[in-house]
Amino acid sequence: MQSNRQEGKHDEQLRELVVEAERALARREFALATQLLAKAETITPEHPLILNARGMQKLHEGQLQAAKELAERAVARDATNPAFWINLATIQRALKAPEAEMQALERALTLEPRHLLALLQKASLLELLERPRAAAKVYRAALQTIAPGTAVPPLLQKPVQRALAAVKANDAALEEYLGQKLQGLRSARGSSTQRRFDHCLDTFLGKRAIYRPQPTFMYFPSLPDWEFHDRDAFPWLEEFEASSQEVRREVEGVLRDEQSELVPYIAHADGLPLDQWAQLNRSRRWSAYFLWKEGSRIEAHIARCPVTSALLSRTPQVDIAGHGPNAFFSILDARTRIPPHTGETNTRLIVHVPLVVPEGCGFRVGSETRQWRVGEAWVFDDTFEHEAWNESDRARAILIFDVWNPHLTETERALVRSATQGIREFYDGESGRAPPA
Question: What pLDDT sits at residue 2?
Answer without folding.
Answer: 47
